[in-house]
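Help wanted!
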Amino acid sequence: MGAYVIRRLLQTVIVFFGVTFIIYAAVFLIPGNPVAALGGGQPLAAPVVHDLELKYHLDEPFIDQYGRYLLGLLHGNFGTSVDTGQSVSSLMAQAWPVTVTLALTAWGIEMALGIVTGVFAALRRGGPVDRLMMFFSILAVSVPIFVAGFTAQVLLGVKLHLVPVAGTQAGWPESYLVPGFVLALFSLATVSRLTRASLLETLTKEYVNAAVAKGLPRWWVIGKHALRNSIIPVVTYLGIDLGFLLSGAVVVEGVFNLPGVGLLIFNAIQNKDGAVVVGVATLFVLVFLLGNLAVDLLYAILDPRVRYK
Amino acid sequence: MKQLPFDRRPKEGQPPAQGAILEVKDLAVEFRLRDRTVHAVNGVSWSLGQSETLAVLGESGSGKSVMAHAIMGTLSSARAKVTAGEVWFAGRDLLKMPERERRRVRGRKIGIIFQDSLSALNPVFTVSNQIGEMFRFHAGMPRRAAQQAAVGLMERVGIPGARRRANAYPHEFSGGMRQRIMIAMALALEPDVLIADEPTTALDVTVQAQIMELLRSLQQEMGMGLVLITHDLGVVADMADRIIVMYAGRAVEESPVRDLYRAPAHPYTVGLLQSVPRLDRAEDDLRPIGGAPPDMTTVAPGCPFRPRCWLAAEVCDHERPPLLGVGEGRASACHFSHAVLEGTAGARG
Amino acid sequence: MIPAWSGQQATPAPGTGGAGTPSAGRASSFLGDAWSELVHNPLFLVSAGIVTLVLAIVAFPGLFAGLFGHGNPHDCNLADSALGPRAGHPFGFDVQGCDLYANVVYGARDTVSIGLLVTASSLLVAIVLGSAMGYLGGLVDTLLGRTADVFFGFPFVLGALIILIDLPERNVLTVSLVLVIFGWPTMTRLMRSTVLSERNKDYVLAARALGASNFRILRKHILPNALAPVVIYATLTTGGIMVAEATLTFLGVGLQAPAISWGLELAAAQNDLQQYPHLLVFPGLFLSITVLSFVTLGDTLRDALDPRLR
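Answered by r_m:
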């Protein structure tokens, strides 16, 4: 197990360097003045350009620049807004709680609903509930988040007045329920299908039949032997899921006007504030990296066969 | 050794024969597929006495495993159906029992071990957890006591360093060790009957011998009946008291071990015994049984072995030979069983 | 101990049907079975039909847009802004006062093209790199594997976002390129694992022993077997790519005006959706149905071709 952990840690470090390098290269190496990119393509006054050049040490060799950038990252410096001059990190600090609340709400919804529906569908395979759920899950996977978001907003918020249309004034859970559900939609469908397929496959395994042969009751066999094995693919999905939650948050917070970190990106794109976009997105990517590491370790705990690979 | 009645044709609904702890009567199992039906078991009858070892011998596809699962009630396919027969245990027909009561028999009174120990054990739980499960569920033992009992069992089945390895996972053990773990699991509650479905097929020859020895000593210790399902003639010779030979889902011969090897009474048995190469005689060719295994999707009239039998005659086409007594404690399902017997006994002399 | 009177060996009597004789008269091939199953599957027929329709719209937008007489998506009059459906304009007008139906029809082109382009390119990259990694192993595998790891470190949309915002010009080609950059690792990994498992099989060892060159082994033996899972996966991802493009365009980092795209239409309309729901309904519906049919098509194909389900 120890070797596995070390290997994964090492891999995370390597990927960290690779990812930050790519981000940096994208911003600073793509043809077109990096300053212009940061400024979002808008013409900037000469003194501003000069300032930016000094600030970003654009006269230095590339490697030095990259090194500075990395150091800055590790010190929590994610750049400065070209628009407002505020540091990106301070902007994020204010906005984090909303995003975390939203993400956790979504995650709770997708796990609870996803697993329950998946187990149900597997145990009642071929039945009407199963077919209905399969249909809904394909739908959930096909409708883009912003379409689903707007639809929910117009239907539930405007037409039916069931939930607040936007903003977080109403607090938790009212303000977060519908946005959370929209954010969770895609993953909910995937978790449900995964659980269903996984449970169905596990039920065909010989050790399930052997457990029945031991005289154990159905609920024990399914609850203990089958479920534990079926959960494993779902856990593997959790890492990718984090990625969907993070990217989706940008859209959902934009649609529902929730003042989280995603909205920062959403607005910054509109305002052509490239520094904020890149800075926040970078943090997201780093969170994604650490999250995947955590998931891999969790996976090793759940499936002992993995530890010796 | 038990005395068998002369006519082995099963009588429906009668209580089991004297001294038998498990009796199967005229069991039939079908698999209903989309476009055809596979008749896996076509009317098998036998009985098992206390402390007796009954070997069920047959090729793959002869229906022996399906029969075992039907007895246990663990036919895993939704398409499998027991279409006829009775399975008598402790004075009751298992097939007619409600599932709740049948479950109480499983594991506790009748145990089963499988061929592939790696797939029969759950990969994500430790072996002591899986053995201890028997104690925790059936005997209501608390976790720690069950763990102790599991370790004790592991020692008894000959796993070295049991205490240390109790919390290891199935894939960390060798095939032979895993088979011992399965045996421990099956015998945890000291059942009256153990069904061993090809227990040594997946193992090396030397390990085979160890496992069989283990089974024998445990059986003697616990006074339990053993149904040994296998296709391996060598394994059978040492262990079994009686043998049932299965073909195309039916019992075609039933006999005490010695008599079967000395003088078989059915053409299929003759073919089986011949096909085993012998080291003590100079022979040039291998002698397989000609022809192909039977098509289990049709129940043809007449004898199922007919296409491959050198004795086949007109009557074999139309009439299915019943399992009839041919000697002391022996039965054979062949119209010419006496001829076979004379021929084989005669060849000896 | 063979009985003297029995003759040498048991010979089978004539006229028997042993196990394994196939049902008379039906050639049973894997693809043939799959095809006949598909043709009888209503889901397949419907989704394939819609996909074909969409492809036709992509190829000949003018034909479909002109069906109601006002087929020019650029023919806009601000006075008509956001008007609802009426005669000659079944979808009404968008915020700019352009015929919404025409815009929705033309909007298919870029999105679907990107979907197909990215899928095809990723597939190509995956086949080449995946085969190299799986078959050659060693340094090639490690290097490419680490590179793939780095790209795996980005959530798909976020990674594309970071690159796209820095691009001076965003059109179908550049957007596709960025999506391929972040999409290749998944398919490549899949290809790698299938090639790897085929490589260790006996028939490959046999070919090697007969002196076949690596390239020949790959092309003739391994690829035909290893391709199926990856191709099936590719059909499933096309829908996802289109969703990703639409989302990125909606956010403002995908296609730009004057391109016509469903994402752009929805982005332009977002502040007015509550008042004028038809601006949401028609583009949203078209987008969703298109993706839905691609995804369903991929699903039915996979079910038909998955050997385990046979």
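OP: Thanks! One thing I noticed: Chain B has 13 helices and twelve strands.
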